[in-house]
Amino acid sequence: MLTKDKGICIRTTDYSENSQILTFFTRQTGKISAIAKGTKKPKSSFGGPIELCSIGDMVFALKDGNKLATLTEFNPTFFGAKTRKKLLSLNCSLLAADLLNLFTKEHDPHPSVFNEAISFLQKLEESGGDKVLGLLIPFEFSILNETGSMPVCDVCSNCRRKFGSAWKDFYFSSLANGLLCKDCEGAFIDRKQVTPACAQYLNNPANAASDYKTLVLTQNLLIDYITHILERPPRTAIMISKLINTPTG
Ligand SMILES: [Zn+2]
After folding, report:
1. Which of 104 and 238 is assigned the larger pLDDT?
2. pLDDT digits over 139-160, tens only?
3. How far is the CA of 223 from the centre of ligand 1 (A)?
4. Which of 95, 132, 153, 208 has the smallest count of CB within 10 Å of its CB?
């Protein structure tokens, strides 16, 4: 059966001399793996190898009981050409691909995450410099939220005291799975003190417009947190850490 869908390429592996095995996050089917035969041949009907983070209309065949689909058409509508020229933007787009792969299961669609991913990649293409983290963090929150992995930031994740202005100090712990109040921070060895602005942002990510320092602090916490959930850092997270924590970078 041939299926038409729209997908984001989130993983590529070379297969034999001319082909690729690709993972797509699709709108209607969710994550799928597919072989694309001959994409690396000079006169391939695909018009060349399929790139990570490209978005396109696709047709694939998936036989019952078969894990690997066969990609028959992929007509890219978005390449991210400008993003590829900017190191931090490029790494943020690769991290988004990594997260889509790591946080979703095969054949389990999440249309709202799909739409957020498309919007994120397109906005990334038009922005640069300081704006990038302000795009990445809301996307990370949306995927964590949709996949049930959101850190607890509306109450103390330990004693459940409601987050608010009465809190004197703010801490975050991946082990505790969220924010911690002053009374509870001592019990979690990995806790880090965070600024009030960072705690506010974690508490209400929709209320963005944060300064760059807060965005960097929040992104560092999210990398720690995602690494804790996945039990290893996403491949691109280390590079992003380096880029955002180097003042001249
Ligand atoms: Zn507490």
Report:
1. 104
2. 999 999 999 999 999 999 999 9
3. 23
4. 208
Q: What domains, with CATH codes, occur in the chain?
A: 1-79 (2.40.50.140), 152-245 (no CATH)
| Distance from the alpha carbon of residue 152 to the mean position of ligand 1, in angstroms | 12
- Going from the Cα of 118 to the center of ligand 1, the distance in angstroms, rounded, reads 38
Strand partners, 61: 2, 70
What are 205-242's pLDDT values in tens digits? Answer: 877 667 888 999 999 999 999 999 999 989 888 888 88
Rg (CA), the chain: 20
**Structure confidence at residue 249 as a pLDDT band (50, 70, 90):** very low
Calpha distance 159→135 (Å, rounded):
32
CA of 215 to the centre of ligand 1 (A): 24
This prediction has a pTM of 0.82
Q: Outline where DSSP puts E strands in the chain.
A: 2-15, 19-26, 30-36, 55-61, 68-78, 170-173, 178-180, 192-194
Output the six-digit token pair for 46: 């695909």
C-alpha 195 to ligand 1 mean position (Å): 17
Among candidate residues 228, 104, 99, the one with its CA nearest the CA of residue 157: 228
Ligand 1 mean position to 231 CA, how many Å? 25
